[in-house]
Queue: 3 jobs
Job 1
Amino acid sequence: MTHVAVPAEVTKKDWITDDLVRLSVGIEDPEDIIADLDQVLENA
């Protein structure tokens, strides 16, 4: 969690909300990333 120590008034100003999803990808196969996202969104 990159913003856990940032005060709420700062995060709100910078559009960082509790429901923000941060997606960080590397050299994974694009189909694997899409499948992972599909699985997460189905269970959300």
Note: The two ends are 19 Å apart (CA to CA).
Job 2
Amino acid sequence: MRIDFSSSERTSLGVEWELELVDLDTRELTGASDAILAEISENGDGEHPKAKHELFQSCVEVITGVCQTVPEACADLWETVGEVQKAAAERNVGVLCSGTHPITDWSTQRISDNERYMTLVERNQWMARQLQIFGVHVHCGVRAPEKAIPIVNALLFYLPHFLALSASSPYWIGSDTGLASYRSKVFEALPTAGLPYQLSGWDQFETYMELLISSHAIKSIREVWWDIRPHPNFGTVELRICDGLPTLDEIGCVAALSQCLVERFDRQLDDGYTLPEPRPWIVRENKWRAARYGLDAEIVVDNTGRLQPVKEAITDLVDDLHSTARRLDCVAELERIPRLIERGASYQRQRAVAAQHAGKLEPVVDLLLAEMRDGLGL
């Protein structure tokens, strides 16, 4: 099976941001996507070039066009978010983002009227119905198909960095899960989600996709929801590991880190380097540690089992990527990452507010609404 890859001319950037729609009286998720998308679409038909339905009617996904820089992508996103917020406010609906909603029960939520989503639910039943989770996906352009799989494999070493930095889902249906990122574990329930197989190259990727389709495991390669995956139609590597991020500040941090890493790997391949590839047991262990402990995790950094605090690993990586960030015009966004670590990831900020209010989670929803509106000021 031949899969064409629409190679990018450079390490371009695209970002997808899954927004939660919340009733401002109850602070619960509310199914307002149809009305909001109808209002902001040009013809009132719900079709908007940069705002889409998602699995649940309580979510709108906002996407960028093809951008060249992180500031361009952030400006693109924020313009569409503004449209969504305005239409939502007219309906007493607020907009926020986190990996999971702190209090809403997934069983109360309505599935969007879309054949693809209905098929997903029919095939996966409760595993799909429980996907009341929200993420941020970053696409980075890759210059040739033969580079895509080595870059995916190399990025797996940095998977805990992204997950720890973005972790924002400590709560599930009103309870503290004890994890920093419960979303990442919920998503793994789908048979084609979670960690990618570490394939040897594009030809093996084509063979594997053909096998999945011929065996009726999937209908199209769009149904392979790996934490990091090649996206042939866009000519990108897509990082899907991040929890939903509450603020544009955090979006900029994650986008800068993503673009810098892919740019560096792409250039190293041009120079004839063989990209490092972590062993599967390390990847699996580090993902668990980041999901469980977030920024307090110690991660495995080599095949001997040597450990390093993930905070330190992220800070070292930021320092290492400065020259690449200058070339890509995202130094400011990259340099906010240490300040974000000092401020605390979203799961830490959420728990701090809950502790101030005797464990009540409605104030956590208010925090997330305020952060989406005002940012963090990093």
Note: Residues 13-374 form a domain with the Creatine Kinase; Chain A, domain 2 fold (CATH 3.30.590.20).
Job 3
Amino acid sequence: MDANFQSIIRQAAGASAIIGQETLQELWSGYGKILRLKLAGAPTESVVVKHVQLPAQQNHPRGWDTNLGHQRKVKSYQVETRWYEQYSKQSAARLPRCLAVVRSGHEVLMVLEDLDEAGYPLRKQNPGWEEIAACLQWLARFHASYLGKTPEGLWGTGTYWHLSTRPHELKALDDQALKEAAPLIDKQLNACQFKTFVHGDAKLANFCFSRDGRVAGVDFQYVGGGCGMKDVAYFIGSCLDERDCERLEGQILDTYFSHLQAALQQPNAALEKEWRALYRVAWADFHRFLKGWSPGHWKLNSYSERITAAVVKSLTP
């Protein structure tokens, strides 16, 4: 990292020096790194820096090395910086404070609060119900914060898998009935009356947990407009097996909507009715993407196949 970036980080964090560096994660397809920097003379011991460096050569792990994919990733980092600069402070759901955003040529630097130091040091791979419910509460608070707002400078349609940004995966899809129904599924989700900002990548790995059960969310590259059920269905698919997805479906929705109604300024029965009906549609939308992108993926299971088939049947003659 060059001296100018180091100077900006020290100034943003109120530090006299950067005394250590740890790589937390390589960004997808070689687009940079997420670092934890240890500080001296600062109010906090560390900050997290997302350092985006656009590569000369693309290297997608599943072989989708296309210009469209590259442009999607470039825009995702533009969206994330805009998100932190303009929208993040409006969230009632906990997320890292942004200390600085710097752009220089093909590089972007986001200096963020270290959530580990802020009291969210835990990551979960096999969450219990209490942890799942805490994430559903986080999503409800997040969605309530942006209900009815226009995602200017963000993705017009949030999530990384929505149909208009995934033509190659649709072309590769072998399920002809689902391929034909895909535009109808997309249209039904996009035509919902009640829209908010969706996180867009609300998988379990993007939640940080405190020791007393609180939750914070990270990674806002695909935040944008849409129906909140996209986040809920995607999150549940990231942390439960097919039996529990089916067994707990009613409990999942009841929990989410109880938190959503509590987070709204006033109860909204019409929103809940509309979004409940779109939960399985949102699930089918992600299933469509996944089946074209990675046909052998572990998230493709009998539950998602059955509810997708039911959605396709309901939308087609």
Note: The CA atoms of residues 14 and 150 lie 34 Å apart.
